[in-house]
Amino acid sequence: MNDTSLKIAQLLRNMLMAKSDAERLAMGCSMFDDAKAIALAGLREERPGMDDVECRVQLLQRLYGRDLGELRSKRIAARLRLA
Question: Which of 20, 56, 68, 83 has the largest CB neighbor count within 10 A?
């Protein structure tokens, strides 16, 4: 579904492309940070007693679990828990 008119979509694209590579990268990083904050808030709401380290482990699973594979994911989780 797309409710944005072609004219507005093109205007937005032009505005984004007028930004430097560094500005677009910063925007993407900021959006990713926001997405992580939202995911962490959801985790904390689901499990109110979970500590910060376990929240990070669970966030890792949500974001990268399948891509990392089970063994690599477990290794990273173990390192997070030791830090």
Answer: 56
Q: Tell me what percent of the chain is helix, strand and coil, each rounded to the nearest 5.
A: 80, 0, 20
Find out whether 62 and 39 touch, Cβ atoms under 8 Å: yes
Residue-wise pLDDT tens digits, 44-74:
999 999 999 999 999 999 998 889 888 999 9
pTM: 0.74
- 19 DSSP 8-state letter: S
Q: Can you give the three-state secondary structure of 42-81, one letter per residue? A: HHHHHCCCCCHHHHHHHHHHHHHHHHHCHHHHHHHHHHHH
DSSP letter assigned to residue 4:
S
61 Cβ contact list (under 8 Å, min separation 6): 73, 77
d(CA 59, CA 78): 14
